[in-house]
Amino acid sequence: MGTKKAVKYSPGMRDWLANLPEGERSRWYGIAGQQRLDDDVPGFILTEAEGPITKGSLQKGNAFVILGVDRNGTPLHGYGGKGHTHCGSIDIVAGRMGINAAKSVTANWAAPGKPDDETTENIYIDPDFKRDAARIYISQKSDVDTYFGLAAGKVGNTKFDEAQSCVAIKADAIRVIGRQGIKLISGGDTHNSQGGKIEGHYAGIDLIAGNICSEPKFDNTNSLQPLVKGDNLVDTLKRIFEELINLRKFIDTFSTYQQNFNSVVMNHQHHSNWPGLISSPSPPLTAMGVKNMIDVLTNVTVGVTQNKVTLEMTRADRLEPSGPKYINSKWNNTN
């Protein structure tokens, strides 16, 4: 799955902890909510238009909740950096810089109790929508697809200076859990949050695995296809099955007619030159007729019977709700 072993502390921290008595060491690990060593927390470039919910969010655990204006990078980025109004944002981040957080502090880590002039200096950073470990980003006005580098799909991306409000969630693993159901709905209003009229049909919902890949041969975002409506598909397949069954009946009927005709031809006789006398059947024709009857029985009649059983079993298994391989989901629906 491309995972890496979790890193708890930087090398300096680990060396210091290794030399502590066992009881003291468990305390600084923060077990059972005790005081713990700070994680490697990068400094954050906080603009005058922004503020954390608590000062502690800049001190402990590398977790941040920043209230401010739309920003996806340096103070010049986003609609806040461009001086737009009506672009408030809430940026909830756990793990700024992700695995690179340890690189944001100087190598000479200072143990607790050392003088302030020996403590570590942080490297100050801006929001990083690519490297930060986990984020929920809420903005009144944004170019959310550009911020997160998303494929356009069929829904399309927001365009520059045609901003939209957004709620974006990004992490290594995302789970959305609804105890009484989950609805994914696009549309619902006639105007967007900026007051713009939503023209034409509502955009749909794209399910994209892989997003944009740097190698064109692995980029599957151009091959999006519409989802199938299950009830319509079942109805269509049932109609096809009916036509296949009818075709089988036609073949079965034709085989019977042909066998009857072949039997007459195989045994037909002619009047001889002698009045009242009938000639014997043609030996080659009789032999071929017998072979033909056996072949039709073996390769057509039996096959048609087996086909009838197979069609009925497949239809019952896959196109009926009671079937063990019913093709429709019992729980999930789409329009």
Describe this structure in words.
The chain has 335 residues and is α+β, with helices and mostly antiparallel strands. It has 3 domains: 1-37, no CATH class; 40-223, no CATH class; 230-318. It contains 6 helices and 7 strands. The longest helix has 37 residues, at 230-266. 12% of the residues are buried.
Give the gist of this structure.
The protein is α+β, with helices and mostly antiparallel strands.
Evaluate the radius of gyration.
Answer: 37 Å
The DSSP helix count reads 6
| Topology as a string of helices (H) and strands (E) | HHEEEHEEEHEHH
Contiguous low-pLDDT stretches (5 residues minimum) are 115-119
What is the quaternary state of this protein?
single chain
Question: How much β-strand is present in the residues?
Answer: 5-15%
Task: Give the tally of structural domains.
Answer: 3
Show the helix and strand layout.
Layout: H1 11-18, H2 22-28, E1 43-44, E2 51-52, E3 63-69, H3 78-81, E4 88-94, E5 124-125, E6 134-142, H4 144-148, E7 164-170, H5 230-266, H6 283-318
Parallel strand pairs: 1-5
Antiparallel strand pairs: 2-3, 3-4, 4-6, 6-7
Which descriptors would you attach to this protein?
335 residues, alpha+beta, 3 domains, 29% helix, 11% strand
